[in-house]
Design goal:
Blueprint lengths: L1 E12 L2 E13 L4 E5 L6 H8 L7 E6 L2 E2 L5 H9 L1 E5 L10 H11 L4 H14 L15 H12 L6 E5 L7 H18 L2 E6 L2 H7 L2 E6 L2 E7 H6 L4 H10 L14 E9 L5 H10 L3 E12 L2 E11 L2 H14 L2 E5 L7 E2 L2
Parallel strand pairs: 3-8, 3-9, 6-7, 7-8
Antiparallel strand pairs: 1-2, 1-4, 4-5, 9-10, 11-13, 11-14, 12-13, 14-15
The structure holds adenosine-5'-triphosphate and magnesium ion.
Length: 344
Amino acid sequence: MIVLDKVSVSFKQKGRIISAVKEASLTVAKGEIFGIVGTSGAGKSTLVRVINLLQPPGSGRVLIGGEDITAFKGASLRNMRLKMGMIFQHFNLISGATVYDNIAFALKANCCPEAAIAGKVHALLEQVNLTDKAQVYPASLSGGQKQRVAIARALANDPEILLCDEATSALDLENTEEIIRILRRINKETSITIVFITHEMDVARKLFDRIAVMADGEIVEAGDTYQIFTEPRHPMSQALVSRVLNIEVPEHLELEASEELLKITYTGEKAYEPLISKVSKEFDVLVDILHGKIEYIQGKPLGVLLIKLNGPEAEIVNARSYIAGQVFKLERLSAGGKGEERIG
Ligand SMILES: Nc1ncnc2c1ncn2[C@@H]1O[C@H](COP(=O)(O)OP(=O)(O)OP(=O)(O)O)[C@@H](O)[C@H]1O
Ligand SMILES: [Mg+2]
């Protein structure tokens, strides 16, 4: 549905050239929820604006549905943009117009027949659970409700693609969850392709099918969401992911010579208790659980466990290699939680 082929964008500012996007390539399949994550200034907004040519690329190509649109202008550009809706962090609603009119304007702008407008607005409001707010002005809506109006408006002309720039970043947790639920449902029902950029990894793990990680204008890694969270390769991906699965090593923890600190990462539903009791039974080691956490990535569990082994060195080595064979990832940590060493 969307192909960006070696897209670059640079800005001139006070005689300096800023390379906001550097040879970025990506492919988004039809019906996919594709996320772009990265820290502030990474070039996410610039990249997403290239998709609908709000930001024409300095070089590279943009293909929509297989068609090269990079050079589109005038009517062809307008028609192509009708295929794409967009929502933003700050909603951008018309404050002097009711919820109904905010959506109706989008329909009128695309020459929707007058007689069809009321029914269409009602159907759109139903999609975002806001039928009771049609005659209300944006000022009396919560942030989450405003964003739902913006979604209804963006969907008014039945676009094939929805572009979302930090659409949940101004919302609290509850409203964020609601927007995620609505976008997932609409995606399922209509197979609309969604490109969503965010710096919130919590949104990423719940919403995205695939993720591209941006750093300093480049796409440094892209893959399946679960894979990015379980096996991030690039340091930027690792830094972003570790915020979600953050396991703190207890402060002032001191290890004795006979002790070893291990971080276990496990996937799937398999519980870890049988593993821990098996290790303490089969090997001459004491196992202390210091911390444990399970997060769900796209509904699939990912667990992290911090344990301390205490015993004779040979037994620790055996226990360690046994554990490594049973779990997704095993790392040896120093007392400060640093100096990670991957074992298995
Ligand atoms: N119109 C512009 N003129 C000059 N520089 C710009 C312009 N738009 C963006 N930039 C610069 O390009 C770089 C990328 O900006 P962009 O807004 O794409 O980042 P972002 O990843 O969306 O960041 P944030 O998470 O803060 O929204 C930044 O260094 C920014 O200052
Ligand atoms: Mg941005």
